[in-house]
Design brief:
It is a single chain. The chain has helices at about 55-65, 105-115, 120-130, 150-160, 180-195, 205-210, 245-270, and strands at about 15-25, 30-40, 45-50, 70-75, 80, 90, 165-170, 200, 215-220, 225-230. The chain is globular, with a radius of gyration of 20 Å. Strand 1 (about 15-25) and strand 2 (about 30-40) form a beta hairpin. The protein folds into two domains: about 15-90 and about 170-273, 3-Layer(aba) Sandwich (Rossmann fold); about 95-165, no CATH class. The protein is an alpha/beta fold. The protein has a six-stranded mixed β-sheet with strand order 6-7-8-3-9-10, with helices on both faces. The chain has a four-stranded antiparallel β-sheet with strand order 2-1-4-5, with helices on one face. Helix 3 (about 120-130) crosses helix 4.
């Protein structure tokens, strides 16, 4: 058998890549927020970011989406530089941010209508997503008629409607009660198993990050930087029973130990301001 030449082996290109991202805010002096963030995330990978409050997790997500520019460094999707928001990324915010005058169907249709797609096509897409996120029968309900968990399902469906290559999620379950949050975690894993989107998920909840993710990126306190990346070797698909296993508990303990000093340092900085 002929040997394979090294130059003939094509490296797998990351779906999402950050190259030495730094960010400073200068509204009131110079405030360094992110320092030298270099990451490679592969297609269909689910990655969570955890860290102390104020370490720049949300700022990084906004840079990945193109909503704000880094002070230095680049974001690449499939090797192409990100310079502005685009259809390749969907963003799910902590607050559902739904249009109160639009129904469930109307909110999900919004992004598709902006793209001026044919009406029959966009309605078929919206109905498929309504079923995917478990809202069949609530197509004509307005946001005020839905529970918090249901509104976040609409929010997720709206982000998925534009068929993004990368889904960015900023603590989307933080405002939900504990039981609803658990249900939404399970629902998100089900949807991810079906859609296989590349996901970057920000959370303060360590067990949530472990349950959802292939890797958990632990940020150091401000300026945010990568302290350690923890690979989560738990079988998929996952159910709540995995949270009672020794392996799951060991991952949670490991990440908390990595974060403990950072959380303490962040509280000292906040107290001195």
């Amino acid at each position: 058998m002929a040997a394979v030449r090294p130059e003939s082996v094509k490296a797998v290109q990351p779906k999402l890549q950050t190259q030495q991202i730094c960010k400073e805010f200068t509204d009131h002096g110079t405030l360094p927020v992110l320092s030298n963030i270099s990451l490679e995330i592969t297609s269909s990978e689910f990655v969570s970011i955890v860290g102390a409050s104020g370490c720049g997790k949300t700022t990084l997500l906004r840079i990945l989406d193109g909503l704000i520019e880094p002070s230095s460094g680049d974001v690449l999707i499939d090797g192409q530089k990100v310079t502005a928001p685009g259809a390749s990324r969907g963003f799910v915010f902590q607050k559902d941010s739904l249009w109160p005058w639009r129904t469930t169907m109307g909110n999900i249709l919004f992004g598709l209508q902006i793209q001026r797609r044919p009406r029959r096509e966009v309605e078929a897409t919206a109905r498929r997503l309504i079923e995917l996120v478990g809202l069949k029968g609530f197509e004509s309900h307005y946001p005020h008629q839905l529970s918090g968990g249901m509104r976040q399902r609409v929010n997720l469906a709206r982000a998925l409607a534009i068929n993004p290559e990368v889904l960015l999620m900023d603590e989307p379950f933080a405002s939900l009660d504990a039981q609803t949050r658990e249900v939404m975690q399970l629902e998100l894993t089900r949807i991810w198993n079906e859609q296989r989107k590349t996901v970057v998920f920000v959370t303060h909840q360590i067990d949530e990050a472990v349950f959802l993710s292939d890797r958990v990126i632990v940020f150091a306190a401000r300026p945010g930087r990568v302290k350690e990346i923890v690979h989560i070797d738990l079988p998929r698909p996952r159910s709540f029973t995995v949270k009672r296993t020794d392996g799951f508990v060991a991952y949670v303990d490991k990440i908390w130990k990595l974060l403990e000093e950072e959380v303490f340092n962040a509280s000292l900085v906040a107290g001195s301001n």
